[in-house]
Each structure stands twice: as C-alpha cells, then as structure tokens.
Amino acid sequence: MDRSQRREQLVAVGREVFAQRGYAATSIEELAARADVSKPVLYEHFGGKERLYAAVVDREMARVLERFTSALAAGGSPRALLERAALALLDYVEEDTDGFRVLSRDSPGSYSSLIGELARRVEHPLGEQFGARGHDPRLAELYSQALVGMVAQVGHWWLETRSPGKAEVAARLVDLAYNGLAHLDPDPALRHRDG
C-alpha cells in the first residue's frame, strides 16, 4: 500500500474498533494488530491513538454533515425539508452505524458540536418559514435546536432497537414536529407552575 492507502486503511480499522470497544477500551496494540501493521507504522501515520481517533471523528462529522446538507439543499415545503432531514440522520444511523457509535458514545464534545451544526443548517429555512407565518424568525434558533435534538435522540434510541422501521420512525418524528410547528402559539406561557 502507498501512504494514502495505508492511512485510509488505518482510519477504517480505527472506526470499526472504536465503534466496537469504545475509545478507552481500545489499545494501540489492538489497532495495530487489527490493521495487520506494527505499532511504529500506526505511530508514523497518526502519532498515537488520540490522533487516529480524531481523524475518525472528523471524517464521520463530515459524512453526516454532507448527508444533512444534501437533504436540505433540494428545498421544498417545510414538511418535505423535515422529512428529508429526519431520513438523512436515520440513514446515517442505519448505513454508517459504526460512525454514529463513535460520534455518539465516546466523543460528547464532538457529538454536541455536530448537533449544533446540524441545527444551524436547519435554522435559516425554519426562520424563513417563521417570518412568512408571522412568527418571530429569531426563535428559529431555539426551535432548530429542539428539532435536531429530538431527531438525534430518537436516532440514538433507534440505533439499538431498529423497530419500528426507519420510514415509520421518520414519519412519526415529522408528524410530531410538523403538527407541533403548525400550531405554534405566538406567545406561549406555562399553564401549570407550582409556586
């Protein structure tokens, strides 16, 4: 293998092992053995486990952001955008399970950064819809965080259950979000507060 092919192989092996065992339980010896290389080869390419892990996390974040951006780029109605966004994340969970495990299990800072970035990508189209419907578009930031957080949390749950099917999960998420957004109170207040 040339240098770039070896690097790709090490990232692929790292992704698999980190997903299976977690960062803390993975040793440099195991990574090298699974890649069928010596430890010095791994150190030569990444300098250690930490930098290999960072390369895996960076790659996975780019993958999920690309999926999400493509889903939103097609435009369309608010409901269509919600459907594509929910399916994009669930597709990632289904098709790139190891990557999702790496992002959501061992890298809480990276995962929260990812959720924040996904929410920022939803914020603009949501703000446009809010403005068109007479709601304060500045609230799009709050609602985009809520929507993306909801889908991400359900994706994490669905990773382990895989039931109901992906299309039904997406449909139910969109139903909850869309029907909730369609009936927003422009000036909500808590109705049941103690004290």
From TrEMBL:
Signal peptide range in chain numbering: none
DNA-binding recorded as keyword: yes
DNA-binding region boundaries: 27-46
InterPro entries: DesT_TetR_C (IPR054129), DNA-bd_HTH_TetR-type_CS (IPR023772), Homeodomain-like_sf (IPR009057), HTH-type_TetR-like_transc_reg (IPR050109), HTH_TetR (IPR001647), Tet_transcr_reg_TetR-rel_C_sf (IPR036271)
Gene3D superfamilies assigned to the protein according to its UniProt record, in alphabetical order: Tetracycline Repressor, domain 2
UniProt keyword annotation of Transcription present: yes
Domain HTH tetR-type intervals: 4-64
Pfam families: TetR_C_46 (PF21943), TetR_N (PF00440)
Keywords, alphabetical: DNA-binding, Transcription, Transcription regulation
Name the record gives this protein: TetR family transcriptional regulator
Organism taxonomic ancestry: Bacteria, Bacillati, Actinomycetota, Actinomycetes, Geodermatophilales
